[in-house]
Design goal:
The chain has two domains: about 240 residues, Type I PLP-dependent aspartate aminotransferase-like (Major domain) (Aspartate Aminotransferase, domain 2, 3-Layer(aba) Sandwich); about 130 residues, Aspartate Aminotransferase, domain 1 (Alpha-Beta Complex), CATH 3.90.1150. It contains twelve helices and 14 strands. The chain has a seven-stranded mixed β-sheet, with helices on both faces. It has a three-stranded antiparallel β-sheet with strand order 7-6-12, with no helix packed on it. The model has no long low-confidence stretch (mean pLDDT about 95). By secondary structure, the protein is α/β, with parallel strands linked by helices. The structure holds pyridoxal-5'-phosphate. Pyridoxal-5'-phosphate binds next to helix 3 and helix 4.
């Protein structure tokens, strides 16, 4: 049986009519950029996340840049982030004109480790740090209590990369409402997804919100009067319309993901394949929801000591999998100028060698999950 990593057709089929009607309204209104459809999505999104302001924009990458720039991050300042994330978590800091400082991750959650952040803040690289940018990786919030304490003690800003975490929470507060500002991505593979590129900044700070709104439109206050140098980072009307429809279903989809993750856990344990970790030996280490978090399982990521061979085996059987991320950011060719070396972030480097994301999407069936786990059992049995 073929098991896809993600099958968006299963999401589209039941929503077909509703989505086409929403697109038709945009065509009729001719408000193709921003306009009523984006404004309606912004209002509904802010209400769902319990934040004062939501600003729709052109991608998660632009949302990160807008959040940083609107919060006042720029040249002469540094921002601490994780070496184990998508490239944009870090490149947006550089695009804002600031310097990126890295700290290692927690091997259980794969999120930025607050203890590592504190130690880097005490080093020579910590002097010009003005903000911390934790990523809620795979749909689980970073350790927010610790980051709030550190930021409070040192008067730092907290910017959330919530690109993978729509609906996640920390102590019942939603991702997107935790920091000074947050960035979401609606890239088509995300748990809340557009039909193209789209993103959003959320914040409870009205000044940051106003500045982000201005920066996404070339820094325009009044039409053709530019108060500062911004960029074209607007959301288009079709994406706003599609996202408003999907916003009604995302809580149910996230709940389905939670049930799928619980079932993977049961299946792996019943097959005797699960190891305690954090590092794998002969079996697989399963992902965990840590106390205080509400995980939305954007990805279900296991660890295996023979990850590459396991992935090849699954591919040969028609089972999808993906590696998020195979190269830690400090090892990326484009980021050599940051001045880090291999060995500087051992947890991130080890995670890059061992992580494997398995199929998880709301419509994934139980027999498909059984097929995935049975294939992994076969691999582990035959190739010890
Ligand atoms: C953690 C993280 N940050 C930022 C982004 C950038 O979002 P986008 O692809 O919408 O620009 C993504 C997604 O691709 C992501 O996963």
């Amino acid at each position: 049986m073929v098991v896809p990593m993600l099958d968006l057709a299963r999401q589209y089929q039941p929503l077909h009519r509703e989505l086409l009607d929403a697109l038709d309204q945009v065509l009729t209104s001719r408000q193709f950029i921003l306009g009523d459809a984006v404004a309606a999505f912004e209002r509904a999104a802010a209400e769902q996340l319990d934040v004062a302001c939501a600003i729709g924009c052109s991608s998660g990458t632009d949302a990160l840049w807008l959040a940083l720039a609107a919060a006042g991050i720029g040249p002469g300042m540094s921002v601490v982030t994780t070496p184990f994330s998508f490239f944009a978590s870090l490149s947006s800091i550089l695009r804002a004109g600031a310097t990126a400082v890295l700290a290692d991750i927690d091997p259980v959650t794969f999120n930025l480790d607050p203890a590592c952040v504190e130690s880097v803040l005490g080093s020579h690289r910590g002097d010009s740090v003005r903000a911390i940018l934790p990523v809620h990786l795979y749909g689980q919030c970073a350790a927010w209590d610790a980051f709030s304490r550190v930021a409070g003690e040192r008067n730092l800003l907290l910017i959330e990369d919530a690109a993978q975490a729509w609906g996640a929470a920390w102590n019942h507060a939603k991702a997107g409402s935790l920091g000074n500002a947050a960035a979401f991505s609606f890239y088509p593979t995300k748990n809340l997804s557009a039909a193209g590129d789209a993103g959003m900044v959320t914040t409870n700070n009205l000044e940051i919100a106003e500045r982000a709104r201005m920066l996404r439109q070339h820094g325009m206050g009044h039409r053709y009067h530019h108060r500062e140098l911004g960029w074209n980072a607007r959301m288009d009307g079709f994406q706003g319309a599609i996202l408003s429809v999907k916003l009604k279903y995302i809580a149910g989809w996230n709940q389905a993901r939670r049930e799928l993750a619980a079932r993977y856990d049961q299946l792996f344990r019943a097959a005797g394949l699960a190891e305690d970790g954090p590092y794998p030996e002969h079996g697989v280490v399963l992902p965990r929801e840590v106390p205080g978090t509400h995980h939305v399982w954007h990805q279900y990521v296991i660890r295996s000591a023979r990850r590459d061979a396991l992935r090849e085996f699954l591919t040969a059987r028609g089972i999808g999998s993906e590696i998020y991320y195979p190269v830690a950011l400090h090892a990326q060719e484009a980021l050599r100028g940051l001045g880090y070396r291999e060995g500087d972030f051992p947890e991130a480097e080890r995670a890059a060698r061992e992580v494997l994301a398995l199929p998880i999407f709301p419509e994934l069936r139980e027999d498909e999950q059984q097929t995935v786990v049975a294939a992994i059992a076969d691999f582990l049995a035959t190739r010890q």
